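sry for the spam today, last one i promise. struct tokens for design, 292 residues
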């Protein structure tokens, strides 16, 4: 009787502990979400008078009622395309080499350690590196290609780590089955490993680009302009981006420019949410195609 009572009390304590832990986890999820909704809602309410097609297709102006984000929006789009073209092939190639070809040893361990450390370096450091390497040494100037190369350096460690994690999800038995059927290492990678890990690779890349689109410190460091009244027309053209345009408006004393900044924040957040949603959709679609 005593043992049964003790067992019953222990089970009740376990149930109570589990409920308390579940409540704490739910609170940890709810508080950041509520804070995000409050911040986004406040920005949306303030920006509502300026949100519209005219705001997206207008150029910056000294009058807050006429100002728009077209050059910054185009600059951010060009930056993301160029950054992806630079970072994705290098990052995916480095991940494939480290996971599939590199032999274990102190050199490989040192490279992996440095990649992990570089992923946590503040973005301003990449801006200083881009300023010295691309702007001054390579004489690219404060151009679109210099900004894209700087952001590519920022994203490269994250792309490598995300690609390696995706490659590790492919069971080794699939590789061995391909080898047993006569496939060499490259055929195995191209026809078995890459199609299987593609959802994870694309998700990591898109999420990395979603982070890059909101970076301000590296672009300010290399000298991106805060006021641009034209759309970039070449790789050597000066440029601006949405975060820099928002920073410019926030720093002005007129209240109308603060409304423009809120509208720019809403546009930037919507772009980031769109990229994150695209990553989720691609992952589910590709996973469904692979497994079905």
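last one done:
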């Amino acid at each position: 009787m005593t043992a049964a009572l003790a067992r019953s009390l222990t089970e009740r304590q376990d149930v109570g502990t589990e409920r308390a832990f579940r409540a704490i986890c739910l609170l940890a999820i709810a508080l950041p979400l509520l804070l995000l909704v409050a911040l986004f809602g406040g920005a949306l309410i303030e920006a509502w008078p300026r949100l519209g097609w005219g705001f997206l297709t207008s150029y910056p102006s000294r009058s807050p009622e006429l100002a728009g984000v077209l050059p910054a929006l185009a600059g951010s789009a060009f930056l993301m395309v160029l950054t992806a073209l630079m970072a994705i092939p290098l990052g995916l190639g480095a991940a494939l080499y480290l996971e599939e070809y590199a032999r274990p040893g102190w050199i490989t361990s040192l490279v992996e350690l440095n990649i992990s450390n570089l992923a946590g370096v503040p973005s301003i450091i990449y801006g200083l590196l881009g300023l010295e390497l691309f702007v001054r040494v390579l004489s690219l100037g404060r151009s679109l290609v210099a900004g894209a190369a700087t952001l590519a350096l920022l994203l490269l460690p994250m792309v490598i780590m995300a690609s390696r994690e995706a490659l590790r999800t492919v069971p080794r038995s699939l590789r061995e089955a391909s080898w047993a059927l006569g496939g060499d290492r490259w055929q195995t990678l191209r026809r078995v490993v890459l199609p299987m890990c593609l959802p994870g690779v694309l998700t990591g890349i898109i999420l990395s680009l979603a982070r890059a689109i909101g970076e301000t410190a590296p672009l300010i460091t290399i000298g991106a302009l805060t006021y641009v009244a034209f759309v970039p027309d070449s790789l050597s053209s000066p440029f601006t981006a949405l975060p820099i345009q928002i920073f410019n408006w926030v720093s002005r004393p007129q209240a109308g420019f603060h409304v423009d900044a809120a509208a720019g924040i809403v546009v930037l957040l919507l772009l980031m949410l769109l990229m994150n949603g695209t990553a989720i959709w691609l992952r589910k679609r590709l996973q469904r195609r692979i497994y079905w």
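The chain has two domains: 13-47, 63-291. ok im logging off now
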